[in-house]
Amino acid sequence: MSVVRHESHGILSKVVEGGGLVFTAGVTPDNRDQDVTGQTRDVLAEIDRALALAGTDKSKILSATIWVPEIRLRDGVNVAWNEWTGGENLPARACVEARLASPEILVEIAVVAVK
Amino acid sequence: MSVVRHESHGILSKVVEGGGLVFTAGVTPDNRDQDVTGQTRDVLAEIDRALALAGTDKSKILSATIWVPEIRLRDGVNVAWNEWTGGENLPARACVEARLASPEILVEIAVVAVK
Amino acid sequence: MSVVRHESHGILSKVVEGGGLVFTAGVTPDNRDQDVTGQTRDVLAEIDRALALAGTDKSKILSATIWVPEIRLRDGVNVAWNEWTGGENLPARACVEARLASPEILVEIAVVAVK
User: Fold this and answer.
1) CB distance B115–C1 less than 8 Å?
2) Which residues contact C13 (CB under 8 A, 6 or more apart)?
3) Check: CATH 3.40.1390.10 for C3-114?
4) Given an 8 Å threshold on Cβ–Cβ distance, is A90 in contact with B3?
5) Is the pTM of this model over 0.95?
6) Of A59, A103, B93, C108, which cross-links A89 as Cys (Cβ 3.0–4.6 Å)?
7) How far apart are the C-alpha atoms of C81 and B26, rounded to whole Å?
8) Could you read off the pLDDT of C83-103 as tens digits, one per residue?
9) B chain contacts of residue C113, beta-carbon cutoff 8 Å
């Protein structure tokens, strides 16, 4: 079964297709000079872009995993999350606490979608 | 490829089908006035219910991710886990420490199954 | 849809096939008397072995999740990771901090591949 990778360099591919599924990498914000809601908006916009590279979109997400460095940041994530979902096509989701690649990163999200 | 969601409201769907796979949300216990083994029993019963909504069951689980707020709780999780699996149809599994949505939650589990 | 399990005993299967996909368990090193780079080399060799049991290999990995007990260990993971990938067939990847089953374990990795 063939595998298609997009924006593949360094240690990872941004998004990978195979078996009818699309997996994004754990996406973190480029601009870390924002609160968690702003960072989450940026991450979700980047996930939209990554899914488009693989020919799919947020209406086809099966599952999302969200990591925040302090669990109390979940409320701020959800503000941006709810704007983004509009309450529709809601994925299965888990949100847990984990320290991330650098202390200024307040959210990381990875999703699995179908094409 | 179509996506089917069950118990979809608020921020997430309880279970989502697509591409021949079934993803549950991270499931936490409703009754948190129990030790970790009791909480895990409740979570696994809820996973049974979620999988049934999607027309599958625990014999078809491919992978499980388990989060506990302190890694020493793993032993108490495994008591309920072993009762539930009966040593059969064992998923691939990862169990790691992560603080969860509230301090009284002692376990969260998400699974991926086939239909 | 049928599910095939390999090295299935105790609490988990090492690797499970279903729906055209292959999921490994979270793999930890047997020899913990090594630094994180050595431990990661062992884990990746074990992932190679697990994928072979399921009739696939590292060129077909879609996604990898990496847990380290302190996020600063990520650099040491990446030394072994880069040796192993050779910069080719890069998976989507997330690497987050999580305490693992015992304090001497410095890395745990789970992957999803196609057959």
Assistant:
1) yes
2) B90, B91, B92, B93, C5, C6, C7, C25
3) no
4) no
5) yes
6) A59
7) 28
8) 999 999 999 999 999 999 999
9) none
